[in-house]
Amino acid sequence: MTKPTLAADSPRATDDASAAKGAPAARSQKRPSKPRASRSRIPGATYRLQLHGGFRFKDAIEIVPYLAELGISHVYCSPYLRARPGSTHGYDIIDHQSLNPEIGTRAELDAFVAALQAHGMGQIIDIVPNHMGVLGADNAWWLDVLENGRASAYAEFFDIDWYPANPDLTNRVLVPVLGDHYGAVLGSGELHVDFDAPAGSFSVHYFDHRFPVDPRDYPRILAHVLGAASMAGVSAQAIGELKTLMSAFANLPARDNLDAEARDTRNAAKQDCKRQLAQLVAAQGPMAQAIEAGLRSFNGVPGEPASFDLLHELLESQAYRLAFWRVAADEINYRRFFDINDLAALRMENEAVFEATHQLVFELVAAGAVDALRIDHPDGLFDPAGYFRRLQDRVASLAPWRKSEAGFGTEPVYVSIEKIIAPFEAMPESWAVSGTTGYRFANVVNGLFVDTAAEAQFTRLYQAFTGEYSSFEEVAMRSKVRVMRNALASELTVLASRIARIARASRYTRDFTLNTLRHALTEVIVAFPVYRTYIADAVSDEDRRYIEWAVARARRRVAAADTSIFDFIKTVLLGEAGANDAVVSADVRHFARKFQQVTAPVMAKGVEDTSFYIYNRLLSLNDVGGDPATFGYGVNAFHGASADRAARWPHTMLATSTHDNKRSEDVRMRIDALSELPGAWRLKLRRWSRINRSKKRKVNGELAPSRNDEYLLYQTLVGSFPIDEGADGLAGFCARIESYMIKAVREAKQHTSWASHNEPYETAVVEFVRALLADTGHNLFLEDFGAAVQPLIRLGMLNSLSMVLIKLTSPGVPDTYQGNELWDFSLVDPDNRRPVDYELRRRLLSQLHSARDAFENLADGRAKLYFLKKLLALRTRMPDLFLHGGYTSIQVLGSHAANIVAYARRHRGAGAIAVAGRLFATLGIENDSLPCGALWEDTRLELPFMEEGSVLRNVLDDDRVHRVEAGGVRLADLFQRVPGAVLVYDRGEIKPD
Fold it and tell me: Whole-prediction pTM value?
């Protein structure tokens, strides 16, 4: 048989292991009339839906029958609490106590739930405890903080440093929203005070942003209004009433009076004063006109700097300071979600915050509308373990009908957390969760389809083409330093200031200066091997190991005469410094826990959102939770990871595509195939770069795009090139690639960035993409690329089929991201949130009657849909096997043993044996054929736990029967018509122990 056009040498088998007062009252809870014990607490299989204005509850209802027929047990919904208008993801929640009107009403949600329950299905919802959307003019809690500062009922809801290093910000919030420096924006007239007559309130407006004025400062504005000529038409009685109100506003308790009684008095009195002002203005038409006229002069006149003095003085007296958005990196004093200014972190450790933000969620859980929870970004929480415990306790108290099968206690709710785990890291088993959302699995299963033997060759060709010789570790460390010096500099400043105060409290450490502490902290954070530690009242052995390792590594990197500062930092991070002083000791423990909230965003921004766009050796490895330095996984490493998951986290989610991934599962599977063909890939790169050199342009004396960005582009085209151009055609694909490349080069921050656009470079990149994909009728590159990518498309599809087989049979709960039941070649968001053609999917599903139907046309994706349907049906028929079954690796012998991964799931005598192919390029497959039949030669499975003659039914091949022979089972027999097998047996076929 002939090999594909892009061929490689045979791979070698490898074994890489590698409420404060003022919080809203809780609503009454609704409960169903009786428990719904027919649905399992643990999902059998989930399906992620991205809900937004373009795909609402009513749209989700329409596809419930399809998902039920497919075999999905739980629909897994993106956040649907009220988010910022136009949000396509829902993570910018502005009101936790109401539904997002763009997604639907409560009646529509109830109809969705009813549709699910009618089909025996459940619902998982995505909740966002770490942060909420701020700025703008739509978050009532945030606006209250801006109006009242520390006196706000919500001042302790947000993670605000009220005593930052900059004394000008004491008891104030930096609000970095201005498009230019404050003075320039003020002088341009873009900032202006407006009066909301029905509410009786004044606010400063800046485009879509609103900044409430402290009611104690209303007399400043009203005094100016009283002096306006337009007041001549207002009656003396009305003016007298206005002056009385001005006095009442002025006598409100001050913002910095934190006495609870004074705060309550202020909050009640200001609302009463506003109501009286609104009534006075409504009754006095001329007064409304007078206020409007007075505000025109109060707001200033562009070109007359002195005319803005009144507005400036007003702004300077507020509980916030308006600033140029670039100031955020250095001086922002509220914790953000990463470096996103309009997402402010919440203090979820505060009981009032917890109750207020979970009110609606708990109502839905208690009513039986929600069966399980997905927790977004728990690493941002002050105390994740405490949060998980509190969540489970509240659910138990709200839904006492969740009785366990044993008849006592209550079943914990299924909770899946968005947690990224390093290959060497173990998630604390004491956490009250069921597992993670599956990033780790996604990377492990992806690694199976990377030829580990080609690492050195692939590294050399990447270095030769790009001139980039730094290791991924070096790139990641440089990127983390850059992130801390720029986007997250203010977070580092907060940490440095806090530890400096701790140092000054002791005569032994007071000589450590702020600058030296800041520098040393930077080095420790750069060296941190995991996203964060989880120190609470005690330090686990694992957390101690990570801290000591990071500190020791930082010490080695710093060429300084006095490295004792690292000993001090280590004792503080371990919560050991100041043990003889109760006050200092409390500060130390608090610092150690705040430190943990900083390492995670540094890792995320420095590695995933920077390094993953710089180190481009093999892009399929550069995804959420991945390690591009690990060039794939051997079969033994996969077995080890799977057995560990079965033992420790058997119900964790198994993801392969997510809303967060850099590229979809099918894109990664296709790029993986390049690892099998390094020689041919090198030759194609040389040819394409020669063909396309003339399409580049000079930017600052250098050709653009850079060789590294060019290399990234070629891999992106390989992975995402459509099998069928469809309705959008090549032009639609080109537009998607243009958008992707702009995002990629900005994330890399090498030639342009989100903070500082390099327009000439970005223009060069866009023009390069357009030139490569121009449908001119004679595009030499496109012709050559189109021919070269065809065998890779087929190899990628075969990889994807094996990936589906493994995901649906591995320990855990398989998750399918919307649309990925067919081939999907999406890139990073927003590309992966494009509309899904469910009519096509319904039609193809209705046509699947046999294996022959599935493989008539590999290109249309029916084969992938077939694997999914068949294996979901198997999981439904044998739930105990897949919920509780163990994991046993199966030895493969013969000429192509390295091309197979096989294992058994066994429980109480019954079992399923999964057999999946890998590294298909070495098998010598004909271009239009499947890797089936005689090409497997003497390759066979060893099944020592089965009796000779035992019957095995291949679920994927129309239940074709196979019998166990003395030498096991031959692959040539198993893979006769379908490139994969799942063999089911019952207890009668098991050899006795």
Answer: 0.92
